[in-house]
TrEMBL record:
<dbReference type="Pfam" id="PF03807">
    <property type="entry name" value="F420_oxidored"/>
</dbReference>
<dbReference type="GO" id="GO:0050661">
    <property type="term" value="F:NADP binding"/>
</dbReference>
<dbReference type="GO" id="GO:0016651">
    <property type="term" value="F:oxidoreductase activity, acting on NAD(P)H"/>
</dbReference>
<dbReference type="InterPro" id="IPR036291">
    <property type="entry name" value="NAD(P)-bd_dom_sf"/>
</dbReference>
<dbReference type="GO" id="GO:0006740">
    <property type="term" value="P:NADPH regeneration"/>
</dbReference>
<dbReference type="GO" id="GO:0005886">
    <property type="term" value="C:plasma membrane"/>
</dbReference>
<protein>
    <submittedName>
        <fullName>NADPH-dependent F420 reductase</fullName>
    </submittedName>
</protein>
<feature type="domain" description="Pyrroline-5-carboxylate reductase catalytic N-terminal">
    <location>
        <begin position="2"/>
        <end position="102"/>
    </location>
</feature>
<dbReference type="GO" id="GO:0015677">
    <property type="term" value="P:copper ion import"/>
</dbReference>
<dbReference type="GO" id="GO:0070967">
    <property type="term" value="F:coenzyme F420 binding"/>
</dbReference>
<dbReference type="GO" id="GO:0052851">
    <property type="term" value="F:ferric-chelate reductase (NADPH) activity"/>
</dbReference>
<dbReference type="GO" id="GO:0008823">
    <property type="term" value="F:cupric reductase (NADH) activity"/>
</dbReference>
<dbReference type="InterPro" id="IPR028939">
    <property type="entry name" value="P5C_Rdtase_cat_N"/>
</dbReference>
<dbReference type="InterPro" id="IPR051267">
    <property type="entry name" value="STEAP_metalloreductase"/>
</dbReference>
<keyword id="KW-0560">Oxidoreductase</keyword>
<dbReference type="InterPro" id="IPR010185">
    <property type="entry name" value="NpdG"/>
</dbReference>
Amino acid sequence: MTIAILGGTGPQGQGLAKRFALAGVPVALGSRDAGRAAEIAAEISTALPGDAAAITGHDNLGAVDAADEMVILAVPWSGHNATLEAIKGGLSGKILVDIVVPLKEGDPKKVDMPPEGSATEAAQALLGDDIPVMGALHNVSAHTLNDLEASINCDVLVCGNGLAPRKKVMELVEKLGVRAYNAGDAEAARCIEAITPILIRINISKAVPFTHAGIKIWAPEH
């Protein structure tokens, strides 16, 4: 099953492409610049083991067309709506996985939520109810994704309207070797997306002895 990653030339998109390819999932990298996407795809592929799945580069619409069902949106918040407007016509029959967090311009330690309440809800409003939008992977750092020597150090919360597509996204995410949790409908994205700037604040703090931390759901020990 080929997936598309739009914004695939950025650090988070590249990290996800590497991780999915290593998990045996072919990836179509999307960018506004098809040439740049092809260049990055070739660069990533060369650095991965020979048994990794294929990574190919396309413009955004080409990547959407190449995806069997899942399209991951990993663009900066500033390009979120414009990218969706450009690819909307190609998303029929597919699931959009929105990993974008609306960080405040000039201060990534805060969010600047859109009127809809979250990036996930904004995407759903823009695309309409016929295209399921699932929020996921908001709280995983790009550095962690690109450090292939280490496992991903957090759990993933998945939300969106519709149980069936939510379960499909959870199954896809778990191919990365993480645990995915059903976090409920799209409104839950308001809470999940807002965790990211808190993690950023903690990770850049001189008061803690680590960086690039994520979140985990811990079961009781009794």
